[in-house]
Design goal:
6% strand, three-stranded mixed β-sheet, single chain, mainly alpha
């Protein structure tokens, strides 16, 4: 199953979604982003940057970016990124595992609902870009800068490197990811996902039952 098919089943929130092609995915990976909410898109990005009163800017182009991949290929991306998001998310979603539903479906559904949580935050702010961008800004920036530094070290490791040092680096990456998930706005998005994951899985199961 492609990710886009799953999203069409569980997207009952009216959120706009862009399914990114391989070239865009590669560019997003360099910035540490794969699936993410963007408060601006297209012409509004330049319009916002040139605005003399950014604090008043209201977006009409908010969108969630999702790779145009199969479920399995998207899981592979998360497994290989080294930040710890795959392992941490697996732990978070374990209570929702159901023998009738593949765990990868649960995984991608939770990630999508997390981004919907950000969409809802943005709506509650009246689509005010400045307010959303500055939500927990300093904490997020410090965490992101640390993640980039750690990931650069991760990518530079080879088999000849010290395995103990590599293990310590992995531990640091995972710790930084846990700290990220505890930033208030990120925790709020996770809380939204927790509140709606069973509805999403029920929608998926109903869809699959109708096909049989």
């Amino acid at each position: 199953m492609k990710v886009s098919e799953l999203i069409s089943i569980i997207n009952t929130y009216g959120v706009k979604v862009a399914f990114d092609n391989p070239e865009m995915i590669a560019n997003n990976l360099r910035e540490g982003q794969v699936m993410y909410f963007a408060p601006l898109a297209g012409y509004e990005i330049k319009k916002y940057k040139r605005s003399k009163h950014q604090e008043r800017f209201i977006s009409k182009t908010a969108i969630i970016h999702i790779p145009d991949l199969t479920i399995e290929d998207l899981i592979n991306v998360f497994e290989c990124d080294g930040t710890g998001i795959h392992e941490i998310t697996r732990t978070i979603i374990k209570p929702y595992y159901n023998k009738a539903i593949p765990t990868n479906i649960v995984f991608v559904s939770f990630l999508f609902l997390h981004e919907v949580g950000h969409w809802m935050q943005f709506k509650e702010m009246g689509n005010n870009v400045y307010a959303f961008v500055n939500l927990d800004y300093e904490t997020k920036r410090a965490n992101f800068e640390k993640q980039l530094s750690l990931k650069q070290r991760f990518l530079s490791f080879t088999e000849a490197n010290n395995t103990t040092e590599f293990k310590d680096l992995i531990d640091e990456l995972h710790k930084n990811m846990i700290e990220y998930r505890n930033i208030p706005c990120e925790k709020q998005a996770d809380d939204f996902a927790h509140s709606h994951i069973l509805d999403a899985l029920n929608a998926y199961q109903k869809y699959m039952n109708n096909l049989s």
